[in-house]
UniProtKB/TrEMBL annotation:
It is a multi-pass membrane protein. The chain crosses the membrane at residues 12-32, 44-71, 77-94, 123-140, 152-177. It comes from the Bacteria. Its main location: membrane. This is Threonine/homoserine/homoserine lactone efflux protein. The lineage of its organism: Bacteria, Bacillati, Actinomycetota, Actinomycetes, Micromonosporales. Pfam families: LysE (PF01810). It is found in: Cell membrane. Keywords: Cell membrane, Membrane, Transmembrane, Transmembrane helix. Signal peptide: none annotated.
Length: 207
């Protein structure tokens, strides 16, 4: 596989799994959609997050992410935009915690907006830009083939693992909420996710 050793790929996959299991904006967004609406909304949110990460990977391959990371003004603008988006998302969620179920998000249970919001949640996270720039190249081996092809492969594996974890979370949480959850449980999860969004936004703004 492009000359990359099995040990390198195994270490890379292990690192990805650990990172994917660490709570962050993407995971909280998928969980919020799944518990507030349904499993379908959680799955669509996961697809949106994965699409955002695919854009980050493409930017790394094209060299754009390095340019953004090297520009303090541009990076700061993205950081503030991401922080504002997370805080607004959290405040809106707090304001609407009393409304759960499909009616709260329209006829399709919120899935129509889940993809777009998942995409924005990932794209407006400047830490994902730095992560992509700093993390992926560590596993590139100059003697293993074209660097761009290696980055594309590593990036595709990253997106695949992220999508698998987020889909499992979204589908599992959505089905659990539908089968065992009551309105009080759903509201508690809503509030937890909403507070987490605001806290993550404040932390991002603080640098």
């Amino acid at each position: 596989m492009l000359g990359l050793s099995a040990a390198t790929l195994a270490g890379y996959l292990a690192a990805i799994v650990v990172l994917m299991l660490t709570p962050g904006p993407d995971m909280m967004f998928v969980l919020a959609n799944a518990t507030r609406y349904d499993a379908r909304a959680g799955a669509v949110a996961a697809l949106g997050v994965a699409a955002g990460e695919a854009v980050h990977v493409a930017a790394v391959v094209a060299g754009l992410a390095t340019v953004i990371a090297a520009s303090p003004v541009l990076f700061t603008a993205i950081r503030w935009a991401g922080a504002a988006y997370l805080i607004v998302l959290g405040l809106r969620a707090l304001r609407g915690t009393g409304r759960t179920g499909p009616a709260a998000g329209g006829p399709d249970g919120g899935a129509s907006r889940a993809f777009r919001r998942g995409l924005l949640t990932n794209l407006l996270n400047p830490k994902m830009i730095l992560f992509s720039v700093a993390f992926l190249p560590q596993f590139v081996r100059p003697d293993a083939g074209p660097v761009a092809a290696q980055l594309m492969l590593l990036g595709a594996l990253f997106v695949a693992v992220q999508l698998t974890v987020d889909l499992a979370l979204g589908l599992g949480a959505g089905r659990f909420a539908r089968r065992w959850g009551d309105s009080r449980w759903s509201r508690r999860v809503d509030r937890l996710c909403a507070v987490a969004f605001v806290a993550l936004g404040v932390r991002l703004a603080a640098g």
